[in-house]
Design brief:
There is one protein chain. The longest helix is centred in the first third of the chain and has 37 residues. The chain starts with a helix and ends with a helix. It has one domain. It is mostly helical. The chain is globular and about 55 Å long. The protein contains twelve helices and no strands.
């Protein structure tokens, strides 16, 4: 992989990680169009995902610090129920932990099968159609009084995130859609989706780093760094863009893009 190819893929990853169009799916399609065939390509995918994780920390750093403080407090006071009742940041932190369980379990158990899925552009195209349908159905959600997050809802959203491990199923699209189906406001759904990605992306990056140290990689350090940096920059702006789109109630518009790309991929790839 050349540095230019890494930059292109890093830009695609950062832009599409938070826009509900499946970053992993676009990476597979981008690698197919750029004719990149490398057995270590999943390592590159994980590292550019880590780049987008950096962008989350940059934008939500204050909220992340508040959540960590709220989660630490009951470890010293042992007043778990009181903290849950009085601290929104504690409730969000607990929801992130619960919501991360399904993806963590699925990722560990089906690691090899998931790795094989990243080499099948036809599967990606079909999954993009599924993503498009999920996004379109958010139009049916009623604009009623939004409901608060709780562990049960977080677990359901986490199941959606687990399915999104497959390329073509948008992680942000599926988690936000399910959250909106559960009567969570679109803006709150977006913020929770971004925060929920931290344990999954961070865990995958740590595991892949361990594998790289142990076995090495043919891609090289320069392409990995270039892709990661570009993904972090484009991811930062993608978050800003999506929050504005969600605030304007235009989230479901992405459905038409996913459906179009998915159908074209099924027909021509």
């Amino acid at each position: 992989m050349t540095i230019l190819q890494a930059v292109i893929l890093g830009f695609i990853q950062g832009l599409t990680e938070f826009l509900p169009v499946s970053s992993s799916g676009h990476l597979v399609l981008g690698q197919h169009l750029l004719k990149i065939e490398n057995p270590d390509i999943l390592s590159f995918d994980v590292f550019v995902h880590f780049g987008t994780l950096i962008s989350i920390f940059l934008i939500f750093r204050r909220e992340i610090i508040q959540i960590l403080r709220a989660m630490w407090k009951p470890l010293t006071t042992f007043k778990w129920k009181e903290e849950y009742d009085n601290s929104e940041h504690f409730r969000i932190g607990l929801a992130i932990i619960v919501g991360s369980i399904p993806a963590g379990v699925i990722g560990i158990i089906f690691h090899d099968q998931i790795k094989d899925a990243f080499t099948d552009p036809q599967l990606v195209a079909m999954n993009l159609v599924i993503t498009g349908l999920l996004l379109f159905l958010t139009r049916l959600t009623r604009r009623a009084e939004p409901k608060p997050m709780n562990p049960f809802k977080a677990f359901l959203i986490g199941i959606a995130q687990a399915f999104a491990i497959l390329p073509g199923i948008s992680r942000s699209g599926s988690t936000m859609s399910v959250a909106m189906y559960l009567k969570i406001s679109p803006v709150q759904a977006a913020r929770f989706s971004f925060l929920l990605s931290i344990p999954v992306i961070g865990g995958a990056a740590l595991l892949e780093t361990k594998n790289l140290i142990k076995h090495g990689a043919e891609i090289g350090i320069a392409p990995l760094l270039a892709g990661t940096i570009v993904a972090a920059i484009s991811g930062y702006f993608a978050i800003k863009i999506l929050l504005k789109i969600v605030e304007r109630g235009k989230f479901s518009w992405f459905a038409f893009y996913c459906l179009a790309v998915g159908v074209l991929g099924i027909v021509f790839i």
